[in-house]
Each structure stands twice: as C-alpha cells, then as structure tokens.
UniProtKB/TrEMBL annotation:
<protein>
    <submittedName>
        <fullName>SIMPL domain-containing protein</fullName>
    </submittedName>
</protein>
<dbReference type="InterPro" id="IPR016907">
    <property type="entry name" value="UCP029033"/>
</dbReference>
<dbReference type="InterPro" id="IPR052022">
    <property type="entry name" value="26kDa_periplasmic_antigen"/>
</dbReference>
<dbReference type="Pfam" id="PF04402">
    <property type="entry name" value="SIMPL"/>
</dbReference>
<dbReference type="InterPro" id="IPR007497">
    <property type="entry name" value="SIMPL/DUF541"/>
</dbReference>
Length: 251
C-alpha cells in the first residue's frame, strides 16, 4: 500500500512539473510571438520643415541684336551697341568684374517678300548677336539696373534683357538643417498618431527625402526643378521647404 502511495505521489509531482513546464514554455513563446509581431508593426509618416531664406546673389543676362548690310558692318554695330551698354552698366554702379561677354554670333538676315503673290525668304544683310552676363551680390543694383534699362530701349538701342535670377548660395546647408527639423517633425507626428492606442514609437526603420523646394515667400513659384524640386529664382525673399518620409517601428 505504501508503494502505491509513493507511486501516486511521484506521479502527482511529475504532473505538476509537466504542467509548470508547459505553462512556462507557453509564456515564453507568447512573449516571443508578441515581440515578433511588434517588430513587424510599423507606422509611416511624413515630416515637414520650412524656413524663410533670402537670396544673396543675382544673375542677369542682357542681349544685343543688330542688323547691317555686311558682316564687317554688323560686327562694328555690335561693338558700338556693347560700348553703349557697358557705359550704362557703369552708370548703374555694376563693376566690370561682375560681367562676362559671350562671343559674337553672325548669321544671314532674311526678309519675306512676295513675287506674284508667292512669299519667299530673301537675304537682306546680316544679323549679329551678343550676350552680356552680370553676376553680383548687390541685389539692389541689379534690380535698379533692370528697371532702368528700359531707357536704352526707349532710345532705340537694340537691347533685351531677361528678368534677373535671384539665387541662394548656401542651398546645401539650408537643406541639411531642414532635413534634421523635418525628421524631428516626423517623430512628433508619429507619436500623435499612436498615443491613443497605448503603444510607443520605436526606432527608425527607414527614411527617405522628398523634393527640396525653394518657393517664393509670397506663395508663387516657377517650374524650374533644377534642384530636385521647385526653385523660384524670381524673388529675393523665399521659403525653403523639405518633406521627408520616415518609417518607425511600433512597440
């Protein structure tokens, strides 16, 4: 009888140990599964940062266009008109060191005439072209000269000018500072999204930068995307903007 009791007690202990082991294994597996699921959960958010910037450099192009009966006369005409333009720029306080001049371009000048009511192109002399480029950090002088150049056209000088381009010289530094701020903004947004669910934002799993925007401070922009986004060059006061996309794990 005592042997049966001992056997019964041994079996009871063994059962308890097996139950305890199974419970422990289930707990461990549950925790591991929870961590596995948690590690697979993530949230994707966009972060935005922007700040005002001011152009510190201007580029301006002025074109000369003349017509004359011969090539020699065309070259002389370009030289005369360039001398007038150079004097004008001197008066505007734009030093010669700010200027670069393209090589003169010559070509035939055609005019349309009618013979028996049929139009045809007939060469009448030659055309000459030359561009003068001005680059300056004095944005005020460039702006004033762009307005004053109308007086040359009013005096029948064959000059045309493109609107000045106002540029920001430290774009890379501006972009890097905005990326840092946009990344902080992304985490803030992610935290707001998940705080109602009782979970926390974990480590960053991946991040990518969107386009870099230099916009007009007044809200307008142009279509030049030479810097991987929009780059407004028409205004001095601008707004720099960066958008990033960040994926965070959920804990």
């Amino acid at each position: 009888m005592s042997e049966q009791k001992q056997f019964f007690n041994a079996m009871t202990v063994l059962g308890l140990l097996l139950a305890l082991g199974m419970a422990s294994a289930a707990f461990i597996l549950g925790v591991q599964a929870k961590h596995a699921v948690s590690s697979q959960q993530s949230i994707t958010v966009k972060g935005l940062a922007e700040k005002p910037v001011k152009a510190d450099r201007a580029q301006w192009t002025i074109s000369l266009s003349v017509t004359a009966p011969t090539q020699a006369e065309t070259i002389k005409a370009i030289d005369r008109e360039r001398a007038v333009l150079e004097a004008f720029l001197d008066q505007q306080g734009l030093d010669k060191s700010t200027r670069s001049v393209d090589v003169q371009t010559l070509g035939p000048h055609y005019e349309e005439e009618y013979i028996h009511d049929n139009p045809r192109q007939v060469q009448r002399g030659f055309e000459g072209y030359q561009n003068v480029h001005i680059t300056s950090n004095d944005l005020g002088k460039i702006t004033a000269a762009n307005q004053a150049i109308l007086s040359l056209r009013a005096d029948n000088h064959p000059v045309t000018s493109q609107p000045p381009e106002f540029l920001v010289s430290n774009l890379e530094a501006v972009k890097m500072s905005l990326i840092a701020e946009a990344t902080k903004n992304a985490r803030t947004r992610a935290t707001e999204f998940v705080k109602q669910d009782g979970v926390n934002v974990g480590v960053m799993k991946s991040a990518s930068q969107g386009a870099f925007y230099i916009l007009s401070a007044t809200g307008g922009d142009d279509s030049d995307n030479s810097y991987g986004g929009i780059y407004d060059k028409s205004t001095i006061d601008k707004l720099a903007r960066v958008v990033v996309t960040v994926v965070y794990s959920i804990e």
